[in-house]
C-alpha cells in the first residue's frame, strides 16, 4: 500500500519558499536483452538487407540476395547467420561450404565474392558469429574457415592466419569527366582516347547474352573455366538496378566487350567482364572501363572499385596502369582438418598443365564443362 508523503514544517517567521516544479516522470531503465543467434529465413531478407545497408562496414556481398544466387547457380550449401537483440539485428555472417577433391574443403565467405566475413555493431555480436562459424566448421569437418574482409577481424588472435595474395584497387572519382580522364596515366589515357576516336560506344543490356559471349571468349583464352550463364542472369534478376550489364560495340554494332557491374552506395564495382578478339585492336577493354566510369560518375558514384586481383597477374598490372594503388586484402584463415593455407591460385605450378589443356579445348566444349568445375573454386 502506498504511504502518504510527510509534510515539512517551515518556521512561522519565514515565508514559505515557492514549491519546485515536480520532475516529469521517467520510465525505469530497461536492461538490454540477450544476444541470440539465428539462421536467415526468406521472410527476414528485408530486415537483413536493411541492416546491411545501414552498417558502414558491410558490403554489397553481405546482401541476402547472394544466398539464392549461389545456391541456385551452383548447388552450394549456405548458412546466413545473424545475431539479434531486442528484436533488432546486430550482426550478420554469410557462410558457404565448398568441397572438392581437387581444391579441398572449406567453409567461409560467399564463393565468388571478393569481400565478406562478419559485419557487426559490437565485439560481442561478432564473437557470437565467430562461435557459430567455428562450431559449424568443426561439425562439417572443413579444412579451413575463411573470412574476406578489407581489414583483419582478428589482428591479435594467433589462431587466425593471413597471407599476401590478393589486393584490391579502389579510387575516388569526380563528377567531372575531364578530371577523371586526366587522372588516368598518359599511356593508359592514350588507349582510352583510341577507343573514343574509333567510335566505340556503350549500351546497357536487359539480358546477359552479349556479356556472356564476350566473357566466355575471354576466360577461355586465359585457360579458366567459365561460370554458367544462369549465374549472370540470376545476378541481374536478383539485384535489379544495382546490377548493370554494359556492352561495348563498334560504330557498325559489332560486339567488342562487356562488363557486369554492381552499384553499391556511392560506389561502382565492375565485376565480370571480357572482350572478343576484336577488343585488343580497338582498345575495347580500355574504353569499356572508361565508359563505365563516365556512366557511374553521372549516376552519382564517387568511388570506382576495380575489384581484387592476384599479385603477379596481368589483371594486377592492367589496374595499376590506370593509376590505381593496390590495397592488400588481409583475408583470414583458421585451420581445422587442413595443415596449410589454401593455394587455389592459377599461378600455382600444379594448375599450369590444366590451364594449358583448357585453352586448347573447343569453346563450345569449354562452355559446357566449365560450370561443373568452377563451382568447386570458390
Could you explain the architecture of this structure?
The chain contains twelve helices and 14 strands. The protein is of the alpha+beta class and 378 residues long. The chain folds into two domains: 139 residues, Gcn5-related N-acetyltransferase (GNAT) (Aminopeptidase); 161 residues, Gcn5-related N-acetyltransferase (GNAT) (Aminopeptidase, 3-Layer(aba) Sandwich). The strands form two sheets. Strands 1, 2, 3, 4, 5, 6 and 14 form a seven-stranded mixed sheet that branches. A hairpin with a 2-residue loop joins β10 and β11. α2 runs antiparallel to α7 and α5 crosses α9. The longest helix has 18 residues. It is globular and about 65 Å long. The termini are far apart. The relative contact order is 0.15.
Defining traits:
Aminopeptidase, globular, seven-stranded mixed beta sheet, alpha+beta, 378 residues, 2 domains
Amino acid at each position: 500500500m502506498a504511504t502518504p508523503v510527510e509534510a515539512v514544517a517551515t518556521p512561522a517567521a519565514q515565508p514559505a519558499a515557492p514549491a519546485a516544479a515536480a520532475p516529469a516522470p521517467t520510465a525505469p531503465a530497461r536492461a538490454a536483452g540477450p544476444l541470440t543467434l539465428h539462421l536467415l529465413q526468406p521472410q527476414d531478407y528485408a530486415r537483413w538487407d536493411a541492416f546491411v545497408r545501414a552498417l558502414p562496414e558491410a558490403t554489397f556481398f553481405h546482401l541476402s540476395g547472394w544466398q539464392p544466387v549461389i545456391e541456385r547457380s551452383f548447388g552450394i550449401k549456405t548458412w546466413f547467420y545473424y545475431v539479434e537483440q531486442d528484436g533488432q539485428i546486430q550482426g550478420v555472417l554469410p557462410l558457404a561450404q565448398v568441397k572438392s577433391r581437387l581444391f579441398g574443403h572449406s567453409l567461409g565467405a560467399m564463393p565468388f565474392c571478393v569481400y565478406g566475413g562478419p559485419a557487426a555493431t559490437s565485439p560481442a555480436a561478432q564473437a557470437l558469429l565467430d562461435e557459430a562459424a567455428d562450431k559449424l566448421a568443426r561439425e562439417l569437418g572443413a579444412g579451413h574457415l575463411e573470412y574476406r574482409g578489407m581489414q583483419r577481424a582478428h589482428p591479435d588472435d594467433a589462431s587466425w592466419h593471413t597471407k599476401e595474395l590478393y589486393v584490391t584497387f579502389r579510387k575516388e572519382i569526380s563528377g567531372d569527366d575531364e578530371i577523371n580522364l586526366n587522372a588516368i596515366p598518359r599511356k593508359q589515357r592514350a588507349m582510352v582516347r583510341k577507343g573514343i576516336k574509333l567510335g566505340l560506344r556503350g549500351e546497357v543490356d536487359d539480358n546477359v547474352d552479349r556479356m556472356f559471349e564476350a566473357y566466355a571468349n575471354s576466360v577461355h583464352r586465359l585457360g579458366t573455366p567459365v561460370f554458367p550463364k544462369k549465374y549472370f542472369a540470376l545476378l541481374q534478376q536478383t539485384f535489379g538496378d544495382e546490377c548493370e550489364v554494359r556492352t561495348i560495340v563498334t560504330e557498325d554494332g559489332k560486339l567488342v566487350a562487356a562488363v557486369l557491374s554492381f552499384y553499391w552506395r556511392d560506389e561502382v564495382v565492375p565485376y565480370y567482364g571480357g572482350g572478343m578478339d576484336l577488343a585488343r585492336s580497338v582498345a575495347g577493354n580500355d574504353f569499356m572501363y572508361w565508359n563505365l566510369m563516365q556512366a557511374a560518375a553521372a549516376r552519382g558514384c564517387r568511388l570506382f572499385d576495380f575489384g581484387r586481383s592476384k599479385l603477379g597477374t596481368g589483371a594486377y598490372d592492367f589496374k595499376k596502369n590506370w593509376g590505381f594503388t593496390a590495397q592488400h586484402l588481409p583475408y583470414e584463415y583458421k585451420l581445422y582438418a587442413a595443415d596449410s593455407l589454401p593455394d587455389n591460385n592459377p599461378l600455382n605450378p600444379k594448375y599450369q598443365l590444366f590451364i594449358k589443356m583448357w585453352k586448347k579445348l573447343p569453346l563450345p566444349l569449354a562452355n559446357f564443362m566449365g560450370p561443373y568445375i568452377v563451382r568447386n573454386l570458390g
